[in-house]
Structures are given as structure tokens and as C-alpha cells.
Design brief:
By secondary structure, the protein is α+β, with helices and mostly antiparallel strands. It has one domain. 29% of the residues lie in helices and 12% in strands. The protein has four helices and six strands. The strands form two sheets. It has a four-stranded antiparallel sheet with strand order 1-4-6-5. The chain has a two-stranded antiparallel ribbon with strand order 2-3. A hairpin with a 5-residue loop joins strand 2 and strand 3. Helix 1 crosses helix 4. It starts with 10 loop residues before the first helix and ends with a strand.
Amino acid sequence: MKTQNQKGFTLVELAIVMTIIGLLIGGILKGQELMENARVTSTIAQIRSYESATTTFRDTYSAMPGDMANAATRLPNCDATCGPNADDGIGDGIVGANGGIVTAQNTLANDTDDTADETVLFWTHLLRADLISGVSDAGIAAGGVVAAGESHPAAKIGGIFRAGHGDGSAVGAIGGVTVVSGTALALSSGPVGDLDDDLGTQAISPLRAAQIDRKMDDGKPATGFVIGYGAVDAADGCMTANDTSGVYIEQRQNKDCGMIFRIQG
């Protein structure tokens, strides 16, 4: 009667296999972190490009994009739909309403009577002046599409950019944070509706917000020209406090933070 020898893995072989698996998992996690860091860098580059485009537009036309009077005759490939609505204060140097960066944007999806809101035309004017890409003309057409990649540019890290004006006031709806003064961009979860401090529905996590803030400003959510907004709580939320003592709660992975960037003083 013949017997068959059955061989299994030795401890050395098992150790090698486990080491390989560990290296693969570590490589995947490291790769994911590198990708997120690249998105942070790309988002910062976007913001700076929009700031530069706004400065170039203002210097070239002596007007703010979106707020330009007689845009139909001054910008290439423009017609009557390029002109801002009189209710927005044409030519007053303010994009939309004073302090409007945190309030509901008058977008074509929910305001069919206002087909020329300055906060939408901000991006259209920059597009027509050949200073930006990433948006289309759909945002200014009657009943047009208000969405990332159409009326508003999508952020590389997630969410969208919306433009408006900050009046330097504290706003309870965004955690009582004091917003910047001047023309600003908001990184939010969508182009429509008021900015708020709801948990889990913002554009980015506190960790990513902290990375952006440190690279661009002072790293603090409630100070400087880069402001983080969201729920304020010592344990949960975007930040621990809405004053100079506040820090981003970086260990949280949920999308609890939005951001506001001053691009023109």
C-alpha cells in the first residue's frame, strides 16, 4: 500500500506571503494618500488661477467679471445674455449682493425671472474673455443647466466653486465663522442654496481643509483670507472653535467642511 506525502506551507513561506500582502496593502493606502495630496495641490492651483484670471479681467476691462456693464459690446462672442441684471447693481464692483457669498445664489435652475445673475455671469465673463476653462455657456441660457462643469467649475478635490462677495460678518448658518471681506470663492457641495454647517454634506473633510489652509494661509479655520466653515464642536464637526483658538478636527474623515477664499480685497 502506497502512501502519499502531503506538504503544506512552512512558517517561512507563510511569513513571506504575509509580508507581500502587507506591502501591497501599504502600497495601496500610500497610493490613495498620494492621490488625495495631488488633488489638494490641484485645487490650490485652480483657486490661484481663478484669482489671477479675475485680476487680469479687472485690469483689462476696469470691471469685475459678472458685474460688467455693456458686456455684450465689450466681451468677445457676447450678446444680450451676457449682461447682468439691474437688481444686482451693475458696475458697483461687487459680484452679486454684498455678503452674498454665503446666501442662496440666484441661479437659472430656480429663478427663471433672473437670467443674468452676477454670480453665474462671473464665470461666463471669464470664459468669454478666454481666461478660464471648465465651464460652458449653459449657465446663462434661459432654463440652462446649473451644475459643476456647466455654469460653475468643479473642484479637483470635490465639490464646486461659486463666486460672490463677503462683507466680513459672522454668520451663524456656517458655524458663526466670520467670513472674508471682498470678492470671494466658496468651495461648497453645490451651486444652489445657502452655505450651512450641516455635518457630512460639505465639500471636503477637515483633514483636506487643513491641508489647503496650511498651504495657502495660516492653517486656522477662522482667521486669515482662507476660511473654513462647518459645524463647530470640540469633538465632532469641521473645527473646534470659530475664533483664533479654533483648529480643524483633522482626524475626522467625513465631509464636514466647506471653505471660503478671498481673491480680491
